[in-house]
């Protein structure tokens, strides 16, 4: 029997003192950050915002959807996290799932949203593509400093009389998010647009050796930028200095269209002039002008303009990604002002520690959720394949030595990356006070790497997914497992990671998941389901809430294993004569009114015996998994997990070396008097 563990990577925790930045809740639920974007922002990884009107209004279907996906892939290939901003049913999304991208690309009930439109769209629960101005506003609020678009809006022809001026220009004047674009379209008054940008205090620079300001399909508009930047390093330095100085306005980097598209640019420009005249003759005004002109130009050029438009967007994404990487490398980049006194106290939400050195005991151990599961399962007589990544460094060597009893043949060692290090501040009672992680290597556990082990995955009895791996990898493994009928257990690791499978339909491929109450709430919230504002503490209320939040998941999952810490574990699943069968079955979906919850109290452990709580939950899950894979009945599976957890609580290591097939065998632990589990049914069934 074989078990596969697709996990994040080995951590090297130590008890230490440090600091962390605590983020406020984003605008009372109006903004939804994709887990990968949230994690990247928190870890100061390169992130690039992308506007979405190109999806909703800029291109016909299916070119809009395929281009959006290709642009995101280009950004990812440069090591940058794409954050496409869009509004889906009244909620601003920063980072769109595949299903959200498809929805915005296909639905006809969508709006082109600028800054002005956001309150109305959110109030009415509408969907929209965000213009440059709206995308800049959202990006700035969540901490993203760079945005890529095709072209910005500008001053329309005869704008001096009509005052038809894009809000993109005023947003550039009051928002520090830098914008990468191909200039502005020739349908606009480019000269007055540049004058207006100067009035707004926007620093405009052409990317390359020339100061020629581009006109979207043309590399030269006949006007010049104030400056030029020769490469991404110089562009990043320009942006960084604007932020350090606290200028408050944007930097606009104008990128000329690729040379190979220049010839078609002249043809397109002639078509644009004709389309503009036709729009004027037809009395088309305001927001309707651009969609009409783009559609008419596509007709006149027989699709050449669309091809050039796609090439231009992709080129901007490449340049923007390179600048984003350079900007991240420049560690001096901060949103700050010269007037801020160095003695001023930081925001209360950011300040966690200050003052003299705190005394404590410092030690190192090997951990990581996926590694812990593979370690514990190996000690229980199974042979899990551990798929992960470590750096070619001292910590990586230590991990391999420590894990010599495990199958680490699928652990890749990467010379240019550092083995993940997780520093934990542990209270006297063993509880975690603060965690600080350096875990960029997570992103290297990609779909292409995991796909190298298709043969082993296909023969697996169970696949376990660690929630810290990239969302795209989670989706890939779920699709693969569903295709081959392989049971999957998802270990969420935290409330942010818990949402990853639920960003799409991947969660429907899961067989088991083992969240705590907060992670279970995050899963429900991601699915748009009602959740309690505050989680209860009384045991009866905890069980009621856990069962209520598990029921929607049980339409597809076989069992939800809710970990309750000192209160034990709660199995939620299909009711079979007052209990739950953990063995996976290929049966019809569970009816919501057929579920129940079975509560198993934890093994009592004296407080002075608890040395480390970091691996107890992983030991519990591994013990239950081992029971499932060896064909044990439910009570035995859970008791194996509880015994394994009790050993790890009393161990300095995340996984106790005392765990073995004998030590967690309930029949051989004769000194243990087991408390009987209690079965609960949903209130609606009573």
Q: Could you characterize what this model shows?
A:
By secondary structure, the chain is of the alpha/beta class. The chain has 2 domains: 3-12 and 362-685, Ribokinase (UDP-N-acetylmuramoyl-L-alanine:D-glutamate ligase); 150-335, Indigoidine synthase domain (Indigoidine synthase fold, 3-Layer(aba) Sandwich). The chain has 22 helices and 24 strands. The strands form 3 sheets. Strands 3, 4, 5, 6, 7, 8, 9, 10, 11, 12 and 13 form an 11-stranded mixed beta sheet that branches. Residues 1-26 and 332-352 have low confidence and may be disordered.
Features:
single chain, alpha/beta, Indigoidine synthase fold, 2 domains, 11-stranded mixed β-sheet, 10-stranded mixed β-sheet, 22 helices, 15% strand, disordered N terminus
List the helices and strands and how they pair.
Layout: E1 3-6, E2 14-15, E3 31-33, H1 35-42, E4 47-50, H2 53-58, H3 63-77, E5 81-88, E6 91-94, H4 98-106, E7 111-113, H5 118-124, E8 128-130, H6 132-142, E9 146-148, H7 159-162, H8 167-174, E10 178-181, H9 190-199, E11 203-207, E12 227-229, H10 232-245, E13 251-254, H11 262-282, H12 289-300, H13 304-329, H14 369-379, E14 385-391, H15 394-402, E15 411-414, E16 421-426, E17 432-438, H16 447-450, H17 454-458, E18 462-466, H18 471-484, E19 488-491, E20 512-513, H19 517-526, H20 539-550, E21 559-563, E22 569-574, E23 595-600, H21 616-629, H22 634-649, E24 678-680
Parallel strand pairs: 1-14, 1-18, 2-16, 3-6, 4-5, 4-9, 7-8, 9-10, 10-13, 11-12, 11-13, 14-15, 18-19, 19-20, 20-21
Antiparallel strand pairs: 5-6, 5-8, 16-17, 21-22, 22-23, 23-24
Helix pairs in contact: 3-4, 3-13, 6-8, 8-9, 10-13, 11-12, 14-21, 19-20, 21-22
């Amino acid at each position: 029997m074989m078990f596969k563990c697709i996990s994040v990577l080995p951590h090297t925790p130590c008890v230490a003192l440090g600091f962390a930045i605590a983020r406020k809740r984003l605008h009372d639920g109006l903004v939804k950050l994709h887990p990968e974007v949230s994690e990247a922002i928190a870890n100061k990884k390169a992130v690039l915002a992308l506007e979405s009107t190109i999806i909703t209004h800029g291109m016909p279907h299916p070119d809009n959807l395929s281009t959006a996906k290709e642009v995101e892939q280009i950004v990812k290939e440069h090591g940058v996290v794409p954050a496409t901003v869009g509004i889906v049913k009244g909620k601003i999304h920063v980072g769109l799932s595949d299903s959200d991208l498809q929805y915005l690309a296909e639905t006809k009930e969508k709006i082109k949203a600028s800054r002005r439109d956001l309150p109305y769209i959110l109030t009415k629960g509408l969907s929209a593509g965000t213009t440059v101005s709206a995308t800049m506003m959202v990006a700035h609020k969540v901490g993203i400093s760079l945005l890529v678009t095709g072209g910005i809006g500008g001053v329309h022809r005869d704008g001096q009389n009509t005052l038809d001026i894009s809000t993109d220009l005023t947003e550039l004047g009051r928002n520090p998010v830098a914008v990468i674009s191909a200039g502005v379209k020739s349908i606009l008054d480019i000269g007055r647009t540049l004058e207006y940008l100067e009035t707004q205090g926007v620093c405009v620079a052409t990317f390359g050796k020339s100061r020629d300001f581009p006109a979207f399909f043309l590399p030269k508009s006949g006007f010049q930028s104030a400056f030029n930047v020769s490469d991404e390093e110089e562009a990043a330095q320009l942006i960084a200095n604007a932020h350090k100085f606290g200028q408050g306005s944007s930097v606009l980097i104008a990128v000329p269209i690729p040379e190979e598209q220049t010839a078609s640019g002249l043809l397109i420009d002639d078509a644009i002039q004709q389309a503009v005249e036709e729009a004027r003759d037809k009395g088309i005004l305001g927001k309707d002008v651009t969609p009409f002109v783009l559609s008419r130009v596509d007709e006149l050029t027989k699709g050449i303009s669309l091809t050039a438009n796609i090439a231009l967007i992709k080129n901007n994404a490449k340049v923007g990604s390179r600048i984003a990487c350079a900007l991240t490398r420049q560690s001096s980049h901060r949103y700050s002002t010269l007037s801020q006194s160095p003695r001023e106290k930081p925001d209360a939400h950011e300040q966690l520690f200050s003052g003299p050195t705190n005394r404590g005991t410092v030690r190192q151990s090997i951990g990581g959720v996926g590694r812990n599961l593979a370690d514990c399962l190996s000690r229980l007589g199974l042979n899990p394949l551990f798929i992960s990544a470590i750096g070619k460094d001292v910590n990586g060597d230590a991990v391999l030595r420590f894990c010599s009893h495990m199958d680490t043949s699928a652990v890749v060692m990467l010379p240019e990356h550092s083995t993940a290090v997780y520093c934990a501040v542990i209270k006297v009672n063993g509880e975690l006070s603060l965690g600080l992680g350096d875990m960029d290597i997570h992103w290297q556990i990609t779909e292409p790497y995991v796909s190298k082990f298709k043969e082993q995955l296909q023969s697996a009895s169970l696949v376990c997914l660690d929630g810290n791996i990239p969302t795209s990898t989670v989706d890939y493994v779920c699709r693969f497992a569903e295709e081959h009928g392989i049971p999957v257990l998802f270990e969420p690791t935290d409330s942010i990671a818990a949402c990853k499978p639920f960003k799409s339909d991947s969660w429907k491929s899961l067989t088991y998941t083992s969240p705590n109450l907060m992670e279970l709430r995050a899963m429900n919230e991601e699915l748009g389901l009602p959740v309690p504002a505050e989680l209860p503490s009384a045991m009866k209320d905890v069980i009621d809430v856990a069962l209520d939040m598990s029921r929607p998941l049980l339409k597809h999952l076989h069992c939800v294993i809710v970990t309750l810490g000192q209160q034990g574990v709660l199995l939620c699943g299909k009711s079979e004569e007052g209990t739950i069968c953990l063995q996976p079955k290929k049966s019809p979906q569970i009816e919501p009114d057929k579920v129940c919850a079975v509560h198993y109290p934890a093994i009592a452990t004296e407080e002075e015996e608890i040395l480390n709580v970091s691996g107890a939950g992983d030991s519990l899950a591994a013990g239950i998994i081992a029971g499932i894979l060896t064909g044990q009945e439910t009570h035995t599976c859970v008791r194996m997990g509880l015994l394994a957890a009790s050993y790890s609580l009393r161990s300095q290591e995340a996984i106790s070396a005392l765990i073995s097939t004998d030590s967690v065998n309930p029949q051989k632990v004769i000194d243990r008097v087991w408390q009987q589990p209690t079965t609960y049914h949903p209130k609606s069934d009573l």
